[in-house]
């Protein structure tokens, strides 16, 4: 065989290898969705000792009473903790705790605890979402080194329900089903070390291109959602508005963001609303891509798929979500009130993100843990440039069983060095729960609309 022939054969082999790496899954693999796997790609079977049961369909609409303001009742209200992990027995359970959780026991030995309840595989979604996930499995491919998606549109959801690498798991979190267009008022607090805090209230409006009638197909092709965030309290911050047009491939087309400053009465482009830019009114305790536990472009990290494991993670936190609670019941010195939380044993995907050479981010490494049933990110350990564990994120999962979408009762981010934390997404004192089915148009998400949204 000539050298030319060998080189030609090598090129063909490499091309085939690249194609196999980038291709969507085969029809045989996709057929596992809804059979041996759940429709969203989790293992349908339970674990060997039965502590994780089999998935049997999850919660359905009407699983518990819904009050007049739309707040969902707790379908597991009668459940009692199986046991509680404390500083005295944490060593017994460390194989099912993240390094960050173990660090919280060391940082707050007298107050931090993990109440463990029976595992309820409550995850469920509408049939149209299951159908979309199967279509994604057959057609969606990563492009630009995994930083974008090919053959994916916003009505698909769950880009890679049978993932082959770390960035595909991250994309499942980013493309998970979040319900229909919605409006909600959420609260954030960044308590001092002694527990004193000021609540910042923000009105969120979120719309998805496939649910809007006036988004041209070519314009919406690279967009996941449109969102505005308006600060409504306290008075000194009220009227400040942020607008985001969230793109899919943010290397090809960066996230578009604008900010309206009520004091200056000016609308400006806001490129800092991304990566490690400062989080809104967070007192420096979180950055832009900490929202939703993680969001935005994945291009600054190399993503390694470590594998699956069983962990005690925040799950079915309906008690923490209850409108009967006041924010003062939840927000305590050092960490939120762990007596109000619920943890369960679930399988998670572990992904390690390391900042690429030549890129920068205040978090040099992230260890991320995604619930296998919902693809929602529930635990994140953030490391600084020295390799020191710095911040620990916990997402207190709940299923909105009326919508069939997984969300958070709260998102906490603990700074182990400062001894402070931020908590985001509380709704307990809101007048209404999330309002879905909003008929938004593109006119609601233009820079010109920011000034009107921010009038105090």
Task: Walk me through this protein's architecture.
Strands 5, 6, 7, 8, 9, 10, 11, 12, 13, 14, 15, 16, 17 and 18 form a 14-stranded antiparallel beta sheet that branches. The chain has ten helices and 18 strands. The chain has a domain of 229 residues. The protein is globular, with a radius of gyration of 22 Å. InterPro entries: DUF1329.
Task: Sum this structure up briefly.
The chain has a domain at 83-124 and 154-178 and 188-197 and 281-432. The N and C termini lie far apart (79 Å). It has helices spanning 3-22, 27-30, 90-93, 99-107, 127-139, 166-174, 217-220, 318-321, 327-330, 447-453; strands at residues 83-85, 114-116, 141-143, 148-150, 182-189, 200-207, 223-233, 241-247, 256-261, 266-269, 301-314, 343-355, 365-371, 377-383, 389-400, 405-415, 420-426, 435-436.
């Amino acid at each position: 065989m000539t050298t030319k022939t060998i080189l030609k054969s090598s090129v063909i082999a490499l091309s085939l290898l690249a194609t196999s790496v980038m291709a969507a899954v085969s029809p045989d693999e996709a057929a596992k969705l809804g059979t041996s796997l759940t429709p969203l790609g989790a293992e349908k079977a339970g674990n060997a000792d039965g502590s994780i049961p089999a998935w049997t369909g999850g919660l359905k609409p009407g699983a518990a009473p819904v009050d007049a303001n739309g707040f969902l009742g707790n379908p597991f209200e009668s459940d009692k903790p199986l046991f509680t992990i404390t500083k005295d027995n944490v060593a017994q359970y460390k194989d099912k705790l993240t390094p960050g959780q173990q660090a919280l026991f060391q940082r707050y030995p007298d107050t931090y605890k993990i109440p463990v309840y029976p595992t309820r595989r409550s995850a469920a979604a509408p049939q149209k979402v299951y159908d979309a996930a199967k279509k994604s499995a057959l057609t969606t491919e990563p492009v630009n080194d995994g930083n974008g998606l090919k053959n994916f549109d916003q009505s698909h959801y769950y880009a890679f329900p049978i993932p082959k690498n770390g960035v595909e798991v991250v994309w499942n979190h980013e493309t998970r089903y979040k319900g229909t267009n919605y409006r909600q008022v959420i609260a954030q607090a960044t308590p001092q070390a002694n527990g004193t805090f000021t609540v910042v209230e923000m009105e969120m409006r979120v719309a998805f291109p496939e649910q809007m009638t006036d988004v041209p197909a070519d314009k919406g092709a690279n967009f996941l959602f449109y969102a505005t965030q308006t600060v409504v309290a306290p008075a000194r911050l009220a009227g400040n508005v942020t607008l985001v047009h969230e793109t899919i491939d943010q290397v090809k087309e960066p996230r578009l963001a604008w900010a309206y400053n009520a004091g200056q009465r000016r609308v400006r482009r806001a490129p800092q609303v991304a990566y490690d830019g400062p989080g809104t009114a967070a007192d420096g305790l979180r950055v832009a891509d900490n929202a939703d536990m993680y969001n935005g472009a994945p291009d600054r990290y190399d993503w390694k798929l470590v594998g699956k494991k069983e962990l005690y993670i925040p799950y079915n936190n309906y008690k923490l979500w209850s409108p009967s609670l006041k924010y003062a019941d939840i927000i305590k010195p050092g960490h939120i009130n762990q007596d109000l939380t619920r943890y369960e044993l679930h399988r998670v995907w572990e992904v390690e993100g390391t900042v690429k050479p030549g890129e920068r981010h205040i978090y040099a490494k992230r260890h991320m843990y995604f619930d296998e049933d919902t693809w929602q990110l529930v635990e994140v350990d953030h490391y600084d440039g020295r390799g020191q564990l710095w911040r620990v994120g916990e997402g207190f999962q709940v299923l909105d069983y009326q919508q069939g979408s997984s969300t958070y009762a709260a998102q906490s981010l603990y700074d182990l060095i400062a001894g402070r934390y931020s908590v985001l997404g509380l709704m307990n004192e809101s007048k209404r729960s999330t309002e879905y089915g909003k008929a938004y148009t593109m006119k609601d998400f233009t820079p010109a609309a920011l000034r009107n949204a921010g009038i105090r």
